[in-house]
Amino acid sequence: MVVAAVIFLIGALLMGFAPNYAFLMFGRFIAGIGVGYALVIAPVYTVEVSPESSRGFLTSFPEVFINGGILLGYVSNVAFSKLPIHLSWRFMLGIGAIPSVFLAISIITMPESPRWLVMKGRLHEARIVLNKTSESPEEAESRLRDIKEAAGIPEHCNDDVVQVPKHPKGDNVWKELFISPTQSIKHIVLTGIGIHFFQQASGIDSVVLYSPTIFERAGIKSDHDRLLATVAMGCVKTVFILVATFLLDRVGRRPLLLTSFGGMTISLILLSIGLAVIDRSNSQVTWAVALCVMMVSVYVALFSIGAGPIAWVYGSEVFPLKLRATGFSVGVAVNRVTSGVISMTFLSLEKAITIQGAFFSYAGIAGMAWVFFFTLMPETQGKTLEETVALFGTFFEWRSTARELKGKKMNNNDEIQMATGDVVSS
């Protein structure tokens, strides 16, 4: 993350001091590399240091702060727009250097991932971090035991520094993920990457990036009114992401995600109907205009309580320890590529099948996503990262696997309580 912060800093300075368009694009390219680093590292780090009881809450923060950053960018751009034109755009782009410095400094004070420390055999340091990030010493020891097991370290090895069995690196990781994966890994890859694909393929970037166009087609002619509608949409999106952070560890991933995609499907269909009515009418249809504005807000709200934050939470917690960084990075790559394809093809799609046709196609994709997650996605709420991996491998039969694992966990807890009682009585 320090490297990502430095890249952010360099990219912002290059853009702010760019003497020409080519130099500006080069700065954008450099900053984009930093974005790629951060999008992969931040969720993985967060999920690895978080206690299981609040993992969903903490891991949803990237989505929260991405939207907060966008709103902050809007505000700063309005402030800098009052400067002379030759200075305003430079400040708009170069101001990003300031938070980059604070990011680099704050990261230096943060603890290392306990799972990374265990992978390096540094058990003493991992135990210190787990004691700081767990709700009790017992939970810290339980997490350390699970991490050691996932890393292949024998349970009796408790030295400060131990020898760690060799794990696949480089090409072997890719082989385990895509060339000769186990049934469990196939299931994990399908859901862990699928959630990133469907998050973007359901059309969120088309709605966010082209909202002024949507509102214009919906019959809002005033630039000021379209701006107000766009700002309102952005506020709704941010507020409902904050709501989701408090629900993830209480309600669970599956209920929120299924509610999200189900509601998105319905709202996109209604938006398409409203746009079709307006397109075929020679005069303004007030109810259809209101329906379109309302459905855009409902769509972004439903996206924000499920599809938005859960893609980062779920995608970062399902991969096993030795494959997590690579697996999640592939998911992020799919996310960004799909985002680019959706945003760059929207205008062409609009011309080819009309704007209502475009949103109706997104509704179809959102409906497919609902079926996909209902049939293939296990619930990970309240489970350790190591327990989560054991849920996968049976595909459509994952519910039976979850029941078996729950029964085994209850039996293990009973045995621990009995053993503790024997020790106390003796």
UniProtKB/TrEMBL annotation:
Q: Which UniProt keywords apply?
A: Membrane, Sugar transport, Symport, Transmembrane, Transmembrane helix, Transport
Outline the extent of the Major facilitator superfamily (MFS) profile domain. 1-381
Q: Does the keyword Zinc apply?
A: no
What protein family is recorded? Answer: Belongs to the major facilitator superfamily. Sugar transporter (TC 2.A.1.1) family. Belongs to the major facilitator superfamily. Phosphate:H(+) symporter (TC 2.A.1.9) family.
- Has keyword Iron-sulfur? no
Give the membrane topology, semicolon-separated if more than one.
Answer: Multi-pass membrane protein
UniProt-annotated location(s): Membrane
Q: What name has this protein been given in UniProt? A: Sugar transporter
InterPro entries listed in its UniProt record: MFS_dom, MFS_sugar_transport-like, MFS_trans_sf, Myo-inositol_Transporter, Sugar/inositol_transpt, Sugar_transporter_CS
According to its record, what are the GO cellular component terms? membrane
Spans traversing the lipid bilayer: 26-45, 57-75, 87-110, 227-248, 260-278, 285-314, 359-377
Molecular-function annotations in GO = symporter activity
- Principal subcellular localization: membrane
